[in-house]
Amino acid sequence: MAAETHVFQTKVSKLLKLLANSLYSNKEVFLRELVSNASDAIDKLRFAAIAKPELLGSDPVFSIRISADKEAGTLTVSDNGIGMTLDEANEHLGTIAQSGTEDFLEHLSADEAKNAQQIGQFGVGFYSSFIVADRVTVVSRAATAGENEAVRWESDGSGTFTSELTTRASRGTDVILHLRDEDKNFLDPWTLRETITKYSDHISTPVYLLEEKPAEEGKTPDKDWVQVNDAKALWTLPPKEVTDDQYKEFYKHLTHDWEDPLCWAHNRVEGDLEYTSLLYCPSAAPYDLYNRDLQKGLKLFVERVFIMDRADAFLPNYLRFIKGLVDTNDLPLNVSRELLQESRVAAKLKKALTRRALDMFAKLADDKDAKEKYGVFWTQFGRVLKEGIVEDPDNRKAILGLLRFATTKAGASDITVSLADYVSRMPEGQKNIYYVIANTPEAAEGSPYLEGLKKKGVEVLLLWERIDEWMMGALTEFEGHKFIPATAADLELEGVKSKTDEAEKPSETSKEEDDKAVARFKAALGEKVADVRISDRLVDSAACVVGQHDQMLTEQMRRMLEAAGQTVPEEKYTLEVNLESPLVKKALKENDPTRFSEWADVILDQALLSEQGSLKDPAGFVKRLNALLLS
Ligand SMILES: Nc1ncnc2c1ncn2[C@@H]1O[C@H](COP(=O)(O)OP(=O)(O)OP(=O)(O)O)[C@@H](O)[C@H]1O
């Protein structure tokens, strides 16, 4: 069969171009990727051989072998794993399976250095060979294929590849890199040994390097395969024996991420349920965190045998960003995805691993030296974690402890306040936790509803993310303190003693005058409002609208329901007026009932505008306002 030429999938070509144009400070990662692929291929065969031991044939001892040929300028990574057929090579080495990569490639920025850094998130995997090679040849024979059914694949990484049938004496894969002149340092025995040792330290398969033996005088040196790792899977070691650097390297091996993880938790549990878990939190959220096709889940091992990738039965959806593995003796070796869905053991593991993950974050939050790291965690994953408040009532308490907020005291740009911080600095007499939800940080911070609370020294949580409405709807209390929106009709502030209270100015008007003012607004607005009353929450603003906090729909929720095609009932608000406001005072000086009505309408519309950001009849509002401005 003559070699056939194929064109790479468009996104592969884009990726290869990007790789060629990006200068890597750590070019050597290509070796990690190739060693990881070789180890994955061996893991897959080990698993397949449980049901079909004959696949191992006469070659039952697994190994990865790396050799350099200085004369030919090539570096070869070989394994005796599952191998590939011709069709598999065409498919797997010509396409990218991950959904997020497409989005990423479409949104490349002009900043190449940044792109190069981010690209690692997508598991460039095999294609990273082209960082150092101007030609790559793969010779592979699948474990199920005959000697003459091997495949030879080749590409210079410039848009096409060729493939054809060839022969290979035994199953497995050779990846042969024809190194660029400037990257031939990887053929140097010392560099190679150092790099390989670093990337194979934790791998459960033995990795051998072909090294020259010291030659006897006058003789050409002999070469020998030297094992460079101890071939013990990292997670089987006692945590105390594993260094931070080893954990970091292992994370990169598992995930193909090029960045260090933010934190990890390694646990070996014996007893009723026996398992070892190694959970990692990445340092950046993947592009497709909110994409339904996100590839999530842990690697599953049973009795140290790799069973499947991305097993999503072990963590809840709101922890979908966690990477890692679980190894257990309590599941059968032939467990399938379907069986996992119904397995009681899997359900128990999910419960345990969820707690482990939340503990890992709690530790990070408590670590005084890791303040910055927790900030990164919250910025990257806080929004997803909030889903857990609604989805996972059993762990709500633990998740509540992890939440961080912007507040009126910290400011909208400082999202670092925990609920415990909030409670610890509540002024004397404050019983509840106050919050406001708006569409933007600015709108939250500038909300008129906060004026009185601020004046009393009461801190308010500022919220503006879409998920917040949903989350706060599910929350009732934290350590006995109720959550109350700043827009609630009754803020239950009795008993809050603040310095400003004592210095409160006596009202300039009498009770009768106040009642009369309220009655005038009521008469002027009629059916447009549920009620009118004097506000004790406003300081500068003229008025605001309030609803019962357990009944009121915020504007965000209203829009969400409307977008979902639901008819949302008209809501009548209570108008609260600030009798100390110069605008209200001016309005009350108007004796003509028609003109006072216009004033009342403008004041109500202003209040609605501040609350909702829009009005039903904006043109009418502008007309009335202009008439008053001109009078
Ligand atoms: N040494 C190998 N033996 C057998 N198959 C291989 C080998 N190397 C690569 N492959 C096949 O090629 C596919 C693509 O490899 P690549 O490294 O690009 O991505 P991946 O490993 O699937 O993804 P990720 O890098 O995110 O894990 C693999 O999934 C595997 O099917």
UniProtKB/TrEMBL annotation:
Signal peptide: none annotated. Residues 26-183 form the Histidine kinase/HSP90-like ATPase domain. SUPFAM superfamilies: ATPase domain of HSP90 chaperone/DNA topoisomerase II/histidine kinase (SSF55874), HSP90 C-terminal domain (SSF110942), Ribosomal protein S5 domain 2-like (SSF54211). ATP binds at E33, N37, D79, M84, S99, G100, Q121, F122, G123, V124, G125, F126, T173, R337. It holds the Pfam family HSP90. GO terms for molecular function: ATP binding; ATP hydrolysis activity; ATP-dependent protein folding chaperone; unfolded protein binding. The keyword Chaperone applies. One of its GO terms (cellular component) is cytoplasm. Residues 560-631 are annotated as: C. Keywords: ATP-binding, Chaperone, Cytoplasm, Nucleotide-binding, Stress response. It is found in: Cytoplasm. Residues 1-337 are annotated as: A. Homodimer. Belongs to the heat shock protein 90 family. PANTHER family: HEAT SHOCK PROTEIN 90 FAMILY MEMBER (PTHR11528). Molecular chaperone. Has ATPase activity. NCBIfam families: PRK05218.1. This is Chaperone protein HtpG. The lineage of its organism: Bacteria, Pseudomonadati, Pseudomonadota, Betaproteobacteria, Burkholderiales. The gene is htpG.
